[in-house]
Amino acid sequence: MDMLLIVLMTLFVLWLATKILEKAGLAKTWALCLLIPIVNIIMLWVFAFTHWPNLKPGVRQDL
Prior knowledge:
Elements: H1 2-24, H2 39-49
């Protein structure tokens, strides 16, 4: 039962990640990086500070 819950939660998180990546204009396959330890943390940082292709012109991107 625990294993089923882990699989369902993993699939849910991957589904959410693909939706976010789609809205950002990036490839959905980047969501697979969430499955690799350490790489998932690095990719979150890269994703946070990279240019998003779907960002509207004139919108500030710096924080």
